[in-house]
Amino acid sequence: MGGVLVRDTIHDAFMSGPEHAVELAHGYTYSAHPLACAAGLATLDIYRDEKLFERANRLEPKFADAVMSLRNEPGVVDIRTVGLTAASIWRRLRMRQASAASPGSQRLPRQ
């Protein structure tokens, strides 16, 4: 299930095209399909019944702390979290840099 939000000027530009053109051609594969709608409604019921949003809110601080614990690791440039989603940016390290930064790490022998 999805939706599209655009400014009036963008909407008007798409809606003023030729008669035969599809408005805002972004993919209508399952638009208003009864099975897709039923799946969406069932998903919303599960979110509510299992209190998934409340559980996510409780887990968020622990998750953020765990992810942020990586911020001082070699190669980490940036870490961000929103809810239970995280993103990180890493720079490539040469093998010597990685080994020096993590003395316990070793290169595995080739077999």
What key phrases describe this protein's structure?
alpha+beta; 111 residues
Describe the structure.
It contains four helices and two strands; from the N terminus they run H-H-H-E-E-H. By secondary structure, the chain is an alpha+beta fold. The mean pLDDT is 82.
Short overview:
This protein is an alpha+beta fold and 111 residues long. The chain has four helices and two strands.
Which word captures the global form?
flat
Order of helices and strands: HHHEEH
Q: What is the residue-mean pLDDT, rounded to a whole number?
A: 82
Strand content: 5-15%
What is the percent of helical residues? Answer: 40-55%
Largest sheet: 2 strands, antiparallel
How would you classify the helix and strand content by structural class?
alpha+beta
| CA gyration radius, whole angstroms | 24 Å
Helical segment tally?
4
Q: Are there runs of 5+ residues with pLDDT below 50, and where?
A: none
- What gap, in angstroms, lies between the N and C termini? 49 Å
Number of strands: 2
- Order of the strands making up the biggest sheet: 1-2
